[in-house]
Amino acid sequence: MHKRTILYTTLTLSLLFIGANTYLIEKADSKVDRELRVAEWEPVNKGALAKELPKAGVVASEEENYIYFNDEFGSFKKFLVKEGDQIKSGTPLYEYEVTDQSQQKSVLESEADQLEDEIDSIEENISDLKRLESSLPSGATDDKEIPIEASALQSEYDLKKEIAAKELEIDRLESQVDNLERQISDIESYETTLTVQSSVDGTIKDLSHAIDNPLITIASQSTIVTTDLTEKEIVKVDEIMSATVQSDVEEKIQKGIVTRVATLPKNDPHIQTDSMYPVEIKLQDTKNELLPGHHVFLSIITEEVKGAFVVPVTAIEKDGESKYIWILTSKGSVEKRKVETGLTVDGQQQIRSGVKAGEYYIVYPDEIPALQKGAAFITALDWDKVKLRDLKKFDRPTILENLLLGILERK
């Protein structure tokens, strides 16, 4: 009896299944084999894309300062530092013996006056730059964002960079003036042995024991990363572009900014050799552990977009010069929509216009045969997104028909 019940039940379900198949297929408005099955689809989301130029680089001192010696008014006596010494502004560097105190005093006073005039000129220039900076458009007013053109941002960056450089130059010149005034004071005290002090912080890189000029070379404590770019690469890189730097010394990825892009080749151009152009990157973290001579791997971000609509390149369909994406509409049909594309990086495509956030698109339209505008579509049921309260909105025949339709459509 039990086996007979199972047999009847199985037979009944089989007949129902076959009947449903026949009904749906023969039904005049049946959707079986008349709808597109879309297996892969995703919502349009925003993201960031960055095109990078990878290069090998090396850490170097940001600048070198040179100390000169004039033997017309004195004779060199001795160095007070040695190569490799870390020095500060005001550190005694060398001594020399004055042979003509009166003439040397006049020379030192003249040099001090020239430096004072130069300081005054730079201060006036800084005032002009600050007035110009204040005239640039502000990034925000009354807490409302105001778009600023890239040219304005570039100008603001250039102004801040120029002002900071000139302020540092004033500090250096004032230190030189203090050094000269101290030497003048020593001469007035009838001292014959004078001491020359450093006007900058840094490391003693080279001493000329032959008393040739430059007598002393001082490498700055601040560092930069340098690399050489080819003729094709140099035209892609501009100042203020962002960069990242990695090394075996530090696990942390360092962020930097391009501060110098050479317009002249590193060596004299020659028809039989490729020209290379030096580029400098300043690291944001000045307290890093990188030392001059350390080799690094860097990436210069030549193009970047943030907060852009991004889709896989597989979702983009080309038709001549135009590009399209297939959208799944809320009415259950597919729409072939023209889009404007932008940056492409690692298989990801920026969409500048033509889509809205949250719209669903077909990831692999090339894999769907007979894909045409306006066609109805079905897709696999995602049980994780099914909610009981939503199912209650439909009657049983509708649920049963669509469930069977989905079963019949499965490949």
UniProtKB/TrEMBL annotation:
- Give the matching Gene3D superfamilies: 2.40.30.170, 2.40.420.20
The segment(s) forming the YknX-like barrel-sandwich hybrid domain are 66-206
Q: Does the keyword Acyltransferase apply?
A: no
Cellular compartments per GO CC: efflux pump complex
Q: Which residues form a coiled coil?
A: 98-132, 156-190
Ranges for domain YknX-like beta-barrel come to 224-300
The molecular function GO annotations come to:
efflux transmembrane transporter activity
Q: Which UniProt keywords apply?
A: Coiled coil
Q: List residues of the Multidrug resistance protein MdtA-like C-terminal permuted SH3 domain.
A: 308-363
> What superkingdom does the record give?
Bacteria
Name of the protein: Uncharacterized protein
Q: Which organism is it from?
A: Rossellomorea vietnamensis
The beginning of the lineage is: Bacteria, Bacillati, Bacillota, Bacilli, Bacillales
